[in-house]
Design goal:
By secondary structure, the protein is mainly alpha-helical. The protein has a single domain, classed as Lysozyme, CATH 1.10.530. Helix content is about 60%, strand content about 5%. The longest helix is centred in the C-terminal third of the chain and has 18 residues.
């Protein structure tokens, strides 16, 4: 599993790399378009103290994303499972609506993983 490639692919799809991005009517923040519920989950589970401003910091946003995915998927999920969870929440893998999200992430992930190999 190539975390660097996966998170870079998620960023490409979520914001095109715009660290200042705000979406979903103001409810999604930063390059990974993190929602408040993700912060609540990560902070509760990992005993961290991330806030809204951390979502705009690319390094912090990457850490938040990885912690969230590790929380809900564990360490042995596939890139597809991680991406669909990022898009659809804890049960995103089971939601048909997240399949199209993975199809948008997949080419970025495959290209980035190959470049880093």
């Amino acid at each position: 599993m190539n975390w660097v490639a996966l998170i870079a692919a998620l960023i490409a799809v979520e914001s095109g790399g715009d660290a200042a991005a705000v979406g979903d009517g103001g409810d999604a923040w930063g390059p990974l378009q993190i929602h408040a519920a993700v912060l609540v989950d990560v902070n509760r589970h990992w005993r961290t103290a991330y806030g809204r401003d951390d979502c705009f910091n690319p390094d912090s946003a990457r850490r938040i994303c990885k912690l969230y995915l590790m929380q809900w998927c564990g360490a042995v999920a596939t890139p597809e499972q991680y991406a669909r969870t990022w898009n659809g929440g804890p049960h995103g893998v089971m939601r048909a609506a997240t399949e199209s999200y993975w199809e948008r992430v997949r080419p970025h992930y495959e290209r980035l993983a190959e470049e880093q190999a």
